[in-house]
Every structure is written in C-alpha cells, then in structure tokens.
Amino acid sequence: MDGWKFVPVMCTHEMDVQGSMPLCIRVLMHVNSEISQKDIRHIYHSEAVKLRPDLQQ
Question: Does the pTM of the predicted model rise above 0.85?
C-alpha cells in the first residue's frame, strides 16, 4: 500500500490459517510524532516477530 511501507497493519477478524500464531493479542496505537515513519521502531515480542519480520531491526 503506497505510503504504508513502515506501518504495521492489522485486521479486525483473524482468518483461521493452519500454522498461524495462536492466542495472539495485537495492540495498535496511534501517535502523533515529528519522527519519520522509517525511523520509528516497532516492537514485536517473542514469537510475534514472525508477524512482521521486515520491521525488525
């Protein structure tokens, strides 16, 4: 999606996908900041790194 390269996204209903992460709670926070999108560090703990490995540093 144009302009959303560095933004984690989430859906409101998780599909039942074989091999998906069980019991995952996702939290989305909206923050106004002067920091550019590419400089914001998104935090994924433990196995949640698998959700967006491209955003891990």
Answer: no
